[in-house]
Amino acid sequence: MQPLPLHSQKVTVWYWLTAAFIVGLFFFEEIGPSGLVTCTVNGTRYEYFLRNQLIPALQQRGCVDSTIFMQDGAPPNIATPVKQLLNLHFENDRIISRHFPTAWPTRSPDLNPCDFWLWG
């Protein structure tokens, strides 16, 4: 009899929601010995995702210059390469995040359109 795993398998998925469209779903996965496995999001993976997935998708829609980028202050979101990339494409005045002029509110209840529309 196989013992039950200590933790269930998890999926790390990301998407972008605007008033006009949804970009995504993007899964954070890596190739392991037995195929694709989910992985933890860190600053390097998040910066790679922004640079190679999200920003090109927004550029393709022609909306980078009018986008306000909002994210919480999770450690991967405020890694130095991530902050530099965001500032390059969105500039300080269109970024809502910790360590930017418009900070994500401290102890925010994280109520946003995702909480309301996707998982109620």
TrEMBL record:
List the transmembrane segments. Answer: 12-28
Listed A to Z, the keywords are: Membrane, Transmembrane, Transmembrane helix
- Under what name is this protein listed? Tc1-like transposase DDE domain-containing protein
Q: Which GO terms describe its molecular function?
A: nucleic acid binding
Give the top-rank taxon of the lineage listed in the UniProt record for this protein. Answer: Eukaryota
Q: Which InterPro entries match?
A: RNaseH_sf
